[in-house]
Amino acid sequence: MVSPQLYRRAIPAAARITRWTARDGWPLRRFDWPAEGRARGRMLFEGGRGDIFEKYLEAFAHWHAQGWSITSFDWRGQGGSGRLTPDPHVGHVDDFQLYVDDFRDFWAGWVAEGAGPHVVLGHSMGGHLLLRAMVEGAATPDAAVLVAPMLGLHSPLGWTLGERLAGVLGGVGNSARPAWRGNERPASTETRQALLTHDQERYADEIFWQSSKPELLLGPPSWRWVIEAFGSTRRLRDDSRLKTLSVPILLLVADDDKLVSPKAAYKTAAKLPDARIVRFGKEAAHELLREVDAVRNRVIGEIDIFLSARAQG
Fold first, then answer.
1. In this structure, is the dihedral angle defined by the CA atoms of residues 234, 156, 196 and 18, taken in order, positive or negative?
2. How many domains does the chain have?
3. Could you tell me which residues are beta bridge partners of residue 153?
4. pTM for the full predicted model
5. CA distance 299 to 116
6. Which of 18, 40, 132, 163 could be 67's S-S partner, Cβ–Cβ 3.0 to 4.6 Å?
7. Residue 185 and residue 229: Cα distance in Å, rounded?
8. What is the pLDDT of residues 78-98, one digit of tens each?
């Protein structure tokens, strides 16, 4: 068996990178890695804000070796799916509903392409959007895994004041302008790597892809994105449909996460009728799937156990 580590900086030969067209004609970059022989099932993975699917090739290789067919796509406005503002380094979207509409349509076509079980995995913003899509009836997977899900932003002012301040600052002038200059959050004294992972080599993998394909690089979010993120996460936390969601869900949460709110994840999970929570301490930063081996191996193990129990063919 080929080591999954070999895929960290190389697209698998059997994988395909194509384009999928949204309902409004917008092209989204798509990744497919079909299982060899009889597939165990089909897995749809969605990354976070500014992510590209290349960052998760090592994890994909692990699940592919177990018989899963892997699919992913870059959200519109980032990665290889174009930009929604003239500045290519600003992560902008007018309305998070665009993300959900894209996912709804993609899911409908993807499910019809092959037999299940069909499972979804989402990191950070991807976790938020997957849960929102399930709540709104846009997708009904056999099981779902939310990794460091963005169910609330990490704000020193708290969710309410943070949302109000974003509305004031972002509501003046062009809301597509960058909300801050760099890093993953404003006024941070920590390096970008420290916010994401303790593993220097895996962090370097991302820099490798950004250097190899500079068109995939994204910088800070726009003020409109920040406003939408506050509003969308608030509405999802308060959505009464969480209590009737029948999909089994695994949530992996880093208590020391400096980008998304662990408290929001726990509050949301408490409303889900079929949810399991796995917590990580100071040993883990935001990107759990790209952490040091001791953390990452536990993350992968928990996901494997969950899928074996809850997503059988």
1. positive
2. 1
3. 260
4. 0.95
5. 23
6. 40
7. 13
8. 999 999 999 999 999 999 999
Structure tokens belonging to residue 98: 């665009």
Q: What is the DSSP string of 211-270?
A: HH-GGG---SBBHHHHHHHHHHHHHHHT-GGGGG--S-EEEEEETT-SSB-HHHHHHHHT
- Rounded-to-integer distance, Cα 67 and Cα 119, Å: 13
Work out the end-to-end distance of the chain between its first and last CA atoms, rounded to an integer number of angstroms: 24
Predicted confidence at residue 282, as pLDDT, reads 97
Residue with the two structure tokens 């969601």: 245
CATH of residue 129's domain is 3.40.50.1820
What CA–CA distance (Å, rounded) separates 9 from 205? 7
Q: What's the one-letter identity of residue 177?
A: R
**Tokens coding 82:** 């174009």
Q: DSSP secondary-structure letter at 303?
A: H
SS3 56: helix
Count the Cβ atoms, other than its own, within 10 Å of residue 192.
15
What does the CA dihedral 289, 290, 296, 299 come to, rounded to 10 degrees? -10
Domain assignment of residue 90, given as a range: 4-310
Assess contact for 256 and 228: CB atoms under 8 A. Answer: no
